[in-house]
Amino acid sequence: MSERYGQHFLTDPNLARLAIDRAGVRPDDVVLEIGPGRGILTVELVQAAAAVQAVEIDRRLERALAPLEAAHPDLRITWADAMQADLAALDPAPTAMVANLPYNVATPLILRAIAELPGVDRWCVMVQREIADRLFAEPSTPAYGAVSVLVRLACERTDLHPVGRHVFDPPPRVDSALVAFRRRPEWAALAPDWPRLVALVHAGFRHRRKTLANGLQLAGIATRAQSEAVLGRLGRDARIRAEAIEPAGWPVLLAALAEPVAA
After folding, report:
1. Would you say 85 and 62 are in contact if contact means Cβ atoms under 8 Å apart?
2. How far apart are CA 83 and CA 146, in angstroms?
3. Please, are residues 160 and 132 in contact by the beta-carbon 8 Å criterion?
4. Tens digits of residue pLDDT in 155-167
5. How many angstroms separate the Cα of 29 from the Cα of each of 53, 56, 110?
6. Domains, the chain, ranges and CATH?
7. Of the N and C termini of the chain, which has fewer Cβ atoms inside 10 Å?
8. What was the pLDDT predicted at 262?
9. What is the pLDDT, as a whole number, of residue 263?
């Protein structure tokens, strides 16, 4: 493991095959794998998909992955930081994402894939169990936050499979889970406003102990008076907090905030 990159290498090929199955990988898919590590999942992916786009930051793993790349022409390895790489430039473009994600960057990588890879419509990722729960948390629960809103707006969960610590080398200090989800058809309608929606949601949760109106004022999105007026028009309590607004309520709030104020 590289402590620097937060990698815990998968050792169980049965779990790799389960991830591929739960993602619904088809023979014509191009699968994005971020953090292939020693290639346990990669070996299975090249058998199941038309092509695999693997992105790996740690050059020390080249000895393990280079022979695999040489044996499979449809495996493309990009040696880069996935948080900095231009994922949208990958050719052929990914249609699914299956990965044992580095736990320290799992959430932003999922959000990047949603926003920047519209061709990806299925995911199955290994993440820390706490993150898996947060992705699809319900409103007014401790786990519910900005990532819950955004992921649930874009996707629906299709499977959650708890995973023990013993299938990793070295074992992590936290529990893990395979979480599978697919893009909602409704996301296409949200896509044009997605950057503004992301900004609004993050602003709303940045000060989650404050009212939403106060939080949006602190973020410079709207004054407290403006936000309270909009919330009133929407039939919401002016003192509501971000955690009480269900995912579907955020696009409505975004549209209402953009409406001109009546004279």
Report:
1. no
2. 19
3. yes
4. 999 999 999 898 9
5. 11, 20, 18
6. 9-184 (3.40.50.150), 191-258 (1.10.8.100)
7. C
8. 55
9. 41
CA atoms within 13 A of residue 196's CA, in its CB half-sphere: 13
Nearest-5° angle of CA 38, CA 39, CA 44? 155
Q: Is 59 helix (H, G, I), strand (E, B) or coil?
A: helix
Q: How many Å apart are CA 121 and CA 182, to the nearest integer?
A: 5
Q: Which residues of the chain have pLDDT under 50?
A: 1-3, 263
Q: What are the angstrom distances between the C-alpha of 44 and each of 15, 21, 48, 99? A: 10, 11, 6, 12
Q: What is the largest CA-CA distance in the chain?
A: 69
Whether the model clears a pTM of 0.85, i.e. scores above it, the answer is yes
Q: Which residues contact 166 (CB under 8 A, 6 or more apart)?
A: none
Q: What is the pLDDT of residues 19-70, one digit of tens each?
A: 999 999 999 999 999 999 999 999 999 999 999 999 999 999 999 999 999 9
Q: What pLDDT is attached to residue 1?
A: 38
Spatial distance between the Cα atoms of 52 and 45, rounded to a whole number of angstroms: 7
Q: Three-state DSSP class for 172? A: coil
Q: Are 155 and 149 in contact (CB under 8 A)?
A: no
List Cβ<8 Å contacts ≥24 apart for 42-48.
Answer: 42/68, 42/75, 43/13, 43/16, 43/68, 44/13, 44/16, 44/17, 44/20, 45/16, 45/20, 45/98, 46/72, 46/74, 46/75, 48/20
Closest CA to 77 of 87, 86, 69, 85: 69
